[in-house]
Amino acid sequence: MIKWLSALILSILIHCLIFLIYSFLDSIEESEVDRKITNVSFIESIDIEQNAPEVPKENTNDEENIEEITSPIKPKTEIKETKIDNLDQYLSEEKEQESQDEVQDLVNKISAQVIKDIESIWIRPNNISEGMYADFSLSLDRLGNINSFNILRSSGSDVFDRAAMNAIKKYKKIKYIKDIDDEMYRIYFANFTLRFKPK
Amino acid sequence: MIRILILLFLNLSLFSDLVLEITESSNQPIKIAILQKNENSFEGQEIINIISNDLTRTGEFDVLSPDQLLSIPMNESEVIQRDWLLLDVDSIIFVETKQSEYALDINYSIFNVSYNETEDKRRVLGLPDNIRQSSHYVSDGLYEFFFGIEGISSTKLMYVAKNSNVYRLMISDADGFNEQVLLKSNKSIISPTWSPDAEDIAYVSFENNRAQVFTQNLASGKRDLVLSSNFSVSSPAWSPDKKYLAFTSTMDGNSEIYVIELKTKKMSRLTENFAIDTEPAWSPDGKKIIFTSDRAGSPQIYEIDPRTRIKRRLTTEGSYNARASYLNKDEIVFVHRNNESFNIAKLNIKTRDLEVLTTTQNDESPCIAPNGNVIIYSTKDGNLSYLAGVNISSKVKFRLPALYGELKEPAWSPFLR
Fold first, then answer.
1. Domain B30-147 grouped into CATH 3.40.50.10070
2. Which among A169, B3, B92, B225 is least buried, having the fewest CB atoms inside 10 angstroms?
3. SS3 for A152?
4. SS3 letters for A56-72?
């Protein structure tokens, strides 16, 4: 009986734990979906956002830092020790942040170019109703060839879906992919979603 | 359990879901070639010419001529994909004609060049003496395949042709061919309009020296005077259910809007003021009527609910807005004075977006095609009126050939099923 009860309690606890973790992850994902840069939206990695270093915005200016250190309000020695440690840390974190920003910039540039390319190919039909859109999942090889695509969400109109698929089929290859590094390809462009949503 | 959660967490953190959103589309036309399948025939070429003209007139297709092609396959298996990719052709339309003594059937298939496969196969059954209409049905099928709304090549146009002082009420195919005279008069004929089922028409004739509205059955030719009155009756408009006819009359002193129930001849007056109220047109659901009124000092478009008589002004921009009709429940099309020229304009009632659609000087009498994507209107070249059209999607304009002097007062038929 005791064994049965403890198994039951343990089971409830495990289920509660799973539920809490799932809710936590889900809330983070939802908050990230809203991030949009022009026409590009990212559902970004959780740890990148969560562990993003809180780097002071203008900590590159050494003179300002020195001024802070020499400020009479705070004990000199303590500040100096902290400053040296932090400076290294800040510099490395800043470097990391800069590198992340560079990655984002490149992803944005490529995404904007892909959008522009497809918009020049896509001939939209005339039966568009308000809010109509279709989502397609694209799989690219390392050279940017669109190896496969499939419909994730139909617009409800065969003609609309067909026109969108014709544009993807006609696009064939995203030429900018071969020039990016393996990590960016794997994280962002190996698989991504294309949404056709006319204004 | 913890390992699974860690793996799950790692997995989520390693991959991003990038969503690229396409909101704008190309203004380029769809590039196609139309070819005879299996064997060449005179009729087959005639059909292809009619379809090419129909599709080219929309401005939404670029139909390649044979001299632009790198190879001419006789069927799908002979298509060399590379040749067509080089020309950037979207689709090849193969047309096969099967003619017998009593029938002329057209089989056509749509071959997608990018996919290198046939996407759809269709058939139009017709009669040997009706080759133009059968070809128009093929054009409409192709338009529907690519753009999702019905094509209007197989519909009809009605208009008034004036030559010297002779007026002819004419009917023709949507491309201006196959003209027939419905009524000939030495007195003016204006405001022709179709019933919603395309079986009857209504128009204003001055044959008795005053404006009178007649209805006429197209099959039997039987004419009826809608209202016996000594006063002017004009601007007829059928309700979408064909039960009512809205019109303008001066029977109560000045020009007002009335509605008559055709079966019972029961009449009701919708407007009552000292200004001129005219040119009624029904909303697609038949619940509203728009009309032109100068009650505010200049001609503007108003909307009225025939049951509650509640009115509201729709146009505010410009000193002349008249002859309106509904494009859909949110948009209207009308004549708008743009600086010194009269143009056809489109207004979104909700967003108040006004778009001037034409560029000629004296445009009037706009009429919307049943698919809501083309507007035909009359305009002037010097002193001569002619009919012109504008495609709302592609903005491409076209002009209809005139055989009988001046053409004016166009009315586009509903879909003929």
1. yes
2. B3
3. strand
4. CCCCCCHHHHHHHHCCC
Say what the ipTM of the complex is: 0.75
- Give tens-digit pLDDT for B216-247: 999 999 999 998 888 899 999 999 999 999 99
Does B148 contact A197 at a Cβ distance shorter than 8 Å?
Answer: no
Report the DSSP beta bridge partners of residue B111: B92, B118
CA distance B273 to B37: 65
Work out the minimum CA distance from B26 to partner chain A, whole angstroms: 5
Count of H helices and E strands in chain B?
4, 30
Q: Do A194 and B15 touch (CB under 8 A)?
A: no
Distance from CA of B23 to the nearest CA of A (A): 4
CATH number for the domain harbouring residue A180: 3.30.1150.10
Q: Which residues of A touch B144 (CB under 8 A)?
A: 159
Name the residue among B9, B13, B24 with its Cβ closest to that of A119.
B24
CA distances from B131 to B48, B63, B210, B290 (A): 11, 20, 42, 40
Identity of residue B137: Y
Q: Tell if the pTM clears 0.80, that is, is over it.
A: no
B149/chain A closest Cα distance in angstroms: 6
Q: What is the DSSP letter of A173?
A: B
Interface of A with B in 8-67 (CB under 8 A): 14, 21, 25, 29, 39-48
- For A133, the domain range is 121-199
A46 domain residue, yes or no: no
A189–chain B Cβ distance below 8 A for any pair: yes
Rounded CA-CA distance B332/B375 in Å is 12
Q: Are strands B61-63 and B30-36 parallel, antiparallel or unpaired?
A: parallel
Architecture category of domain B156-412 in CATH? 6 Propeller (2.120)
**How do residues A44-54 score in pLDDT, each as one tens digit?**
443 434 444 44
- For strand B341-348 and strand B406-412, is the pairing parallel, antiparallel, or unpaired? unpaired
Q: Is residue A164 part of a domain?
A: yes
A47 and B16 within 8 Å at the Cβ level: the answer is: no
Nearest CA in chain A to B116: A169
